[in-house]
Amino acid sequence: MKNLLSMKQITEKEITEILDLTSQFKKDGIQKLSQNIAVSNLFFEPSTRTKTSFEMAERKLGLEVIPFEAGFSSTLKGETLYDTIKTLEAIGLDAVVIRHPEDGYYEQLCDRTSLSIINAGDGSGQHPTQSLLDLFTIREEFGTFQGLNVLIAGDVDHSRVARSNAEALNKLGANVKFLCPPEWAGEFEAISNWDDVVEESDVVMLLRVQHERHDSKATYTSERYHELYGLTIEREAKMKKDAIIMHPAPVNRGVEIADSLIECNRSRIFKQVENGVYIRAAVLYTILNGRL
Q1: Could you tell me which residue ranges the Aspartate/ornithine carbamoyltransferase carbamoyl-P binding domain spans (predicted)?
Q2: What is the pLDDT of residues 16-49, one digit of tens each?
């Protein structure tokens, strides 16, 4: 595997191998790569969890991390993303981790550079490492994906997490349903009533309302959205005994999920963040070890 761009690209076998390596890293510690490898993290959108967990994973792998700040780069002078990548290739980097607001930005790059590219999120397109850490968190909990009922609720149309997880979970045998306002369903077939699904779901995955990707501000107040489409305390009480709550974060407390549920016993939200370091280390190791 040279790149990780989309969950459409990765096979079930490759997913399993990455999850197994993640399990090994989490049990025994992250194994350093045997040679010096230089990487850089190119984030053209804000990020806390993804960016810092990639940086932590890179350091634990013993990689040379070359700083890159989009706000101080030549992209502000009109340099294209392609020319930025070719510059980093020319100075000797081996790989780049990229988050970019353009859907499918990597399509113009992957065949024109020797660098390995790891997609850390493209617009409303794909977020493969988030999907992999979600898969790992679910597998830790249930040991399998076959027959699990997974509900993804929130701003589905604008969510790269929804697209990536739908692709992967269906591939692995889970039953995926979507819940959102009808106008936010996009390409997905979605329901808008919690009563139809809350009691049967093994995993309830909430999504943030992405105001920045809407043409105009959402028409719902925070209180109204929470009442209609959020995971309220009353809805959580109807969930299966062993069902879990997930969220890729950042979380709008009291909007998509009640504040008190974010750290409740069935929440795995911060466990997802912890698992993100191990998953991203496993992805980097898998790709970069193949370059040695």
Answers
A1: 2-140
A2: 999 999 999 999 999 999 788 999 999 999 999 9
Are the C-beta atoms of 33 and 292 separated by less than 8 Å?
yes
For 28, the enclosing helix (H) or strand (E) is: helix 12-28
What CATH class is the domain 12-126+273-289? alpha beta
Residue 108 in marked binding region = no
Predicted TM-score (pTM) of the model is 0.94
> Does 49 carry a binding-site annotation?
yes
CATH architecture of 128-271: 3-Layer(aba) Sandwich (3.40)
Is 158 annotated in some ligand binding site?
A: no
Is residue 50 marked as binding?
yes
pLDDT digits (tens, 9 = 90+) for 252-292: 999 999 999 999 999 999 999 999 999 999 999 999 997 65
Is 250 labelled a binding residue? Answer: yes
pLDDT digits over 56-67, tens only?
999 999 999 999
Tell me if residue 195 falls in helix, strand or coil.
helix
Q: Is 130 annotated as a binding residue?
A: yes
Terminal Cα-to-Cα distance of the chain (whole angstroms): 13
Q: Any known ligand binding at 268?
A: no
Q: Where are the domains of the chain?
A: 12-126+273-289, 128-271
Q: Given this chain, do its domains 12-126+273-289 and 128-271 carry the same CATH topology?
A: yes
